[in-house]
Amino acid sequence: MAQGMPQQYSVIMLKKHAVVVFVFMALLTGAWISTVAAPAGTNDAPQNISHDISPPLRARQLEGMKVEDSDGQKAGTVRNLVLNLNTGNLRYVVIGYGGILGVRATLKLAPIQVMSAATTKKQTLAINATSSQWRNAPAFKYSSLTALAEADRANEISRYFQTPAKPDVKGTTVSLSKTGRDRPLTSQPAQLQFASDIIGLRVVNQKQEKIGEVSDLLVSFGEPRPAFAIISSGRLFQHGRQYAVPLNKLTLSGHKLIWNPDAASLQNPRQFDQAVWQSRGEDGQVYSYSTATD
After folding, report:
1. Eight-state DSSP code of residue 141
2. What 3-state DSSP class applies to 74?
3. Selecting from 2.30.30.240, 1.20.1070.10, 3.40.50.1970, 3.30.70.1560, what CATH number does the domain 57-161 have?
């Protein structure tokens, strides 16, 4: 009996050691899983809005996308976009909800500062507004686009969504007072257009020679930045060249857009990429565009 004690004691100690090792490995594994899973969890909620410079969004792909508010409730679907042709900036997203199959839906405007595409849900955008706030937001009608260009109306929307009402200025000039102290800014009034009215427009030069037509627009949410027009020079069922041009380089004239590029710049333009997008295309150059750059 006494001779079996050491062997029995060794077995017991080995079992205790195995239990300790198992518990330690379980804790270590749990900590590792938590560390890896934590970043993914922070992106689940659509209200976590990030305004980092992300790749541009295609206006035609945004149409019909679902929008969720910060409470995770459906706010509606994207019906249109509002842009200022003078600056080329995207200003508002038109969101519709209710109605039957989209008919007689209620339309509302969301400033781009409260919109985000940085969600983990497919075909879903986020708006930084609670369900109550969005429900009580002012309604919008397509016929009110002209009034929307007025400063008072724009300030009203900015105040409601608590977004900064920064001047939307193109080619800003600075004039000095006699004392040299004041530096007032002068800007052109907003020339607002719906994205749906821009896409499909014919693009011609000053001689009225056709260059192509606008096949899409490249836009982004967050702080206003110039949009790019994708101009397709090809005809129906033909693959022509596509160019990306800052929208503010095009001038609306009736039912067409006037653009006067240098002929040489169309021969071998630089490829449009993320670096060009981040630079806002401030050099005003013409860029070659392909769907591979999306």
Report:
1. -
2. strand
3. 2.30.30.240
User: What is the amino acid identity at position 60?
Assistant: R
pLDDT digits (tens, 9 = 90+) for 106-162: 999 999 999 999 988 999 999 999 999 999 999 999 999 999 998 888 899 999 998
Fold exhibited by the domain 194-293: SH3 type barrels. (2.30.30)
Q: Pick the range with the lowest mean pLDDT from 55-59, 182-186, 235-239, 276-280.
A: 182-186
Which amino acid is residue 62, in one-letter code?
Answer: L
Phi/psi of residue 232, nearest 5 degrees: -100, 125
Query: Is the CB of residue 110 less than 8 Å from the CB of residue 95?
Result: yes
d(CA 294, CA 55): 7
User: Residue 168 CB: number of other CB atoms within 10 A?
Assistant: 17
Helix (H) / strand (E) containing 78:
strand 74-84
Domain positions in the chain:
57-161, 194-293
- 292: helix, strand or coil: helix
The 10s digit of each residue's pLDDT in 159-205 is 999 876 555 655 433 333 334 444 344 457 789 999 999 999 999 99
Query: Does residue 249 come out as left (phi exceeding 0), alpha (psi in the -120 to 50 range) or beta?
Result: alpha
Gyration radius of the chain over CA positions: 28
Other C-beta atoms lying within 10 Å of the C-beta of residue 44: 11
CA–CA dist 188, 79 (Å, integer): 27
Q: Which residue has the tokens 């606008």?
A: 214
Contact 281, 228 (CB under 8 A): yes
